[in-house]
Amino acid sequence: MKEKMDQFFGITESGSTYKRELTGGITAFLSMSYVIFVNPIILGQAGLPEDAVFMSTIISSALAMLIMGLWARFPLGLAPCMSMNAFFAYSVVLQMGKTWQEALSSVLVASILFLILAFSGARSKIIKAIPMTVKHAGTVGLGIFIAFVSFKNSGIIVPDEGMFIKFGGFNNPNVIIAFFGIITAAFFLVRKNQYAVFLGMIGAALCGLFIRFGASMDWFHLSESVVATLPQLPKGSPVVVPTGPFQSMMNETFLVSVKNLDKMLSLDSLIVILTFLFLDFFGTATTLSAAATQVSDIRRENFEDNKRIYSADAIGTFFGSIFGTSSLSTYIESVSGIIAGARTGLMSVIVAVLFLLSAFFYPVLSLVTPAVTTPAMAVIGIFMMQNITNIKWDGGFEEIIPAFLTIVMMPLTGSIALGLVLGFLSYELCMIFAGRTKEIPKVMHVITVISIAYLFTI
């Protein structure tokens, strides 16, 4: 049995060992496990039942990683993408007015299109057509958008009549919790600890429990409504059979995406589908490119040109939409498993098993509040912000203007799609103004036409 596994995964051939694959799997799981608790909070704001999302996150992620490990045989982890769930909740549902059921159907259609692209030559043509300045600016804009939303949800930022927004103040204990978590995450980031996101959330949760305990002891005078927003320990055992979440998923979100496919024929639905496709497609490409830079002994093309990796991503998103969560994507955090020594798909299988086991810790969700998730969202914003150095700020205004509009308009308008659309349109116009029309790929003209059509839907 051991020899057959070795041959199947190529463990000895790749220079790895079972111990290194196990260590890498545990490391990758701890690095990306925060999504299990953060994803329900974000999608819950769009109206999805949190316990159902908790279960669908685990099942779809596990299935995607089993496909990655057993078929693509590559050491990468997949789970609902943190920028995609933000687009799903805040742009598609809360801003555009789509129901979460329709949004899930959009994800389903986008996953099918992604799968088709993954097996065709169109994938490379589209990647080459999108200007690098918009790709990097889009990542930066997403990072700022995600951080902005998390700051708003935790009370760090509040509405203001004069300046539109202002600092919420430390009289709100959730602001203290969020900042304590950010400081904790910053400490571990500076010390190059790969679990910084996870530990930042732990720090925030512990701070919240301390404040709750202090309020019960009359150390702090807080209203009951404020205390209710604080993290709390599970009532009863922290380990249970997840019967409730599983039933909630089966009753409320399972196959909902299929039942609403008839509503995908409108122009605004088409724009949503294409935006999901774009974000998933280029998010995966960016992640794989970043992953390739972290491991010197694995060739870059093995990541970026591997059709099975892209297909595993698309199939994972398909399952996610079926069970009830937003698009899945390859997680850059899972590269920590490769850095820890893993080199084969066995690592992905181990992470999948650990995800499934985490379903039995459902009561721990009571510890996870918007303030507790803020450190994770802030760190994600920090990582995505680093792409700003890849933008050619000295490449002329035909590079600068699209980058500026993409970055600024995402958080200021609360629309990820609009930021991308304005980036595409401004790039095309500026290239024309600069007399460089012949340098614009033909596929980019098609994207521009779709972008113009989108503007008429808002």
Could you explain the architecture of this structure?
- This protein is mainly α and 458 residues long.
- It has one domain (2-387).
- It contains 22 helices and four strands.
- It has helices spanning 2-9, 18-32, 35-44, 50-72, 82-95, 100-118, 122-129, 132-154, 173-190, 196-216, 224-227, 243-252, 256-259, 267-294, 300-304, 307-323, 335-339, 346-358, 370-385, 397-413, 416-433, 442-455, and strands at 78-80, 157-160, 164-167, 328-330.
- It has a two-stranded antiparallel sheet. The protein has a two-stranded antiparallel ribbon with strand order 2-3.
- A hairpin with a 3-residue loop joins β2 and β3 (164-167).
- α3 runs parallel beside α5.
- It starts with a helix and ends with a helix.
Approximate strand percentage? under 5%
* Total tally of structural domains: 1
The total strand number stands at 4
Major sheet characteristics:
2 strands, antiparallel
Q: What Rg, in angstroms, do the CA atoms define?
A: 22 Å
Order of helices and strands: HHHHEHHHHEEHHHHHHHHEHHHHHH
Q: Count the DSSP helices.
A: 22
Low-confidence stretches: none
Overall morphology: globular
Distance between the termini: 58 Å
Helix percent band: 55-70%
What integer is the average pLDDT?
85
Structural class: mainly alpha
Order of strands, widest sheet: 1-4
Topology readout:
Elements: H1 2-9, H2 18-32, H3 35-44, H4 50-72, E1 78-80, H5 82-95, H6 100-118, H7 122-129, H8 132-154, E2 157-160, E3 164-167, H9 173-190, H10 196-216, H11 224-227, H12 243-252, H13 256-259, H14 267-294, H15 300-304, H16 307-323, E4 328-330, H17 335-339, H18 346-358, H19 370-385, H20 397-413, H21 416-433, H22 442-455
Antiparallel strand pairs: 1-4, 2-3
Helix pairs in contact: 2-18, 3-4, 3-5, 4-12, 4-16, 4-18, 5-14, 6-14, 6-16, 8-19, 8-20, 8-21, 9-10, 9-19, 10-19, 20-21, 21-22
Membrane topology: Multi-pass membrane protein
Transmembrane segments: 21-46, 52-71, 78-97, 103-122, 134-151, 171-190, 197-215, 270-293, 314-332, 338-357, 364-388, 400-427
Pfam family, one: Xan_ur_permease
